[in-house]
Amino acid sequence: MMVVVRKLGRKDELKSVVEKAQKNGLLRLVKLSRECIEKGRCRGKTDRDEDVVINLRGIPLNEGDILEADNGFLILIQLKEERVIEFELKDPVEAFKLGFALGNYHMRVMLQGNKVYISAELGEEFLLERFREYKPQVKEVVFKPNLELPVSPVVIDFANA
């Protein structure tokens, strides 16, 4: 079992280090769920079926990160595909209505061109029924939410009321 000891950086920043590790057989690929990457701690398997423990408290992980394990191996993080519901937007009114409905469920959303993706984690049947007017489809994709509403904290002071 490998235990990750530190994050070295991004694959694109460490090209020569990654190439050297790959040449020497010291590079491993680990596909992780989005939830695991967001938490920063979990267990996974390498592309060679080796166990890996990741627990980098407070250090954010992203796809393409290079981690170093306690045995000297380098680990390249990739996102696993997950089931999503896909919508194709054809006009601004439809887009607004769909956005309003998704916002009411506080769902994280990925937007690519005129396609909207939400995780199927709330249940495919429920989501397909709820959004049937938008002709949703179920797909398996690497889901990277890229739209979130900025939420400003509001503090109400009742002491001086």
From TrEMBL:
InterPro entries noted in UniProt: UreE_N, UreE_N_sf
Q: Which SMART domains does the record match to this protein? A: UreE_N (SM00988)
For this protein, the record's SUPFAM superfamilies field holds: Urease metallochaperone UreE, C-terminal domain, Urease metallochaperone UreE, N-terminal domain
UreE urease accessory N-terminal domain residues: 7-75
Q: Where is the signal peptide?
A: none
What's this protein's name? Urease accessory protein UreE
Q: What is the species of this protein?
A: Stygiolobus caldivivus
